[in-house]
Amino acid sequence: MSSGSMLGGSPFMTTFTGLPRGSMSVETMMGSVYSLLNMFNYHVDMLPLLLVILNDAHCDVEEAYNRIHQGG
C-alpha cells in the first residue's frame, strides 16, 4: 500500500465512517476515548479498540466504561 492512499501518510489518519449520524462530533468522541485510556491506564495503542467499543456503545462513555470493566 502506498503512502499516497493514506491521509498524511499515516495509517492512523484513515477515515472512520462508523459514527452513527447525529452522534457526538469526532473531537468529542476522541476526547471520550482518551478519557477511557486514562481511566484504565491503557497505552495509546489501545485507542482503536476503545474507539470501536465506544462506537458500539452508541457513544455512551458510561456504557463503554461498563463494558470494558466487565470484560464484555
From TrEMBL:
Residues 26-71 form the Doublesex dimerisation domain. InterPro entries: DSX_dimer (IPR014932). This is Doublesex dimerisation domain-containing protein.
